[in-house]
Amino acid sequence: MRKILLLSLIIIGIITSGCHSDSNNNKEGLQGDLIIFHAGSLSLPMKVLADSFNIKHPGLKIKPESAGSLTSIRKITELGKDCDILASADASMIDKLMIPEYADFNLEFAANEMVIAYNQNSNLANEITSTNWAEVILKDNIILGRADPSSDPCGYRTIMSLKLAEKVLGDNTLAERVTSKDSRYIRPKEVDLLALLETSTVDYIFIYKSVAMQHGLRVINLGDSINLGNNKLGDFYKTVSVEVPGNSPDTRIEIQGEPMVYGITIPLNAPNRDAAIEFINFVITEGLPIIENLHQTPINPPQLSKNSKTPVWIVKSLR
Fold first, then answer.
1. What is the domain range of residue 238?
2. Where do the DSSP E strands lie in 44-176?
3. 83-98 pLDDT, tens per residue?
4. What pTM was computed for the model?
5. Most CB atoms within 10 A, among 61, 190, 295, 299?
6. CA distances from residue 89 to 6, 116, 154 in whole angstroms, order as listed
7. Residue 256 lies in a domain
8. Helix or strand run (H / E) with residue 205
């Protein structure tokens, strides 16, 4: 309860400090629904961003929908669902699965890193360290939780981090041994793992550092060579890869390891494009401090991916 109260106070403070217009300011006349599909790890940042934006534009009804990033993209590309904003925990998936047929730009706006998270009730909580974590999580009396690699970037990034750890630790069976353990505790997105940890159903989870920090969890930092969080280690990260389903059940795509980058776009068939443009403008101009206050690293200024067209309104916002 104290954790929830603290988070609530932080959210209220960020919203209050981040909004320079009063609640009656709706000069743009934005109306209707704003549908946002976003990565699970963006649940708290997106709530604060949406609440802050809504104060500026009270005529909008913002409808955020959290899911694994691959699942969110497939809602657009396979199921044809209406969506105004798509925010992915892996920007490269927008390039691979959406551009050019479903979107024409991909704005890279935040970064993150992998950690192992736990709490005071986790078995061997007082023994695990940044040097012995691999040995600890493989013990028979330790239960692990991780995200599904077929629906969530956190899932395939977990596997990539384990493959990188094999190289760093000199253990070429580590990834196979960890991923074959406790498969009944794989969940569709990383934030689904939090309840398993809270109820002591599992002892440790592989998750993004921002999410662990937002929820007051203890973390094991894996080091830059393993955590996919250092943008100077791209060449090393590329030495590992994972295969995941593509836009249809019968296709597969290979994903190479790379530094973690989050991307945001507007689908070509967005029903409320004007509101979507204003929302992304808000993220670029006022939202980056909100993201940083919630323990995630903003990319400032945000960058368009190499496959993107360059919308005039983005260029103006980035000036």
1. 114-243
2. 60-67, 85-88, 107-111, 114-118, 144-147
3. 999 999 999 999 999 9
4. 0.89
5. 190
6. 25, 18, 8
7. no
8. strand 204-208
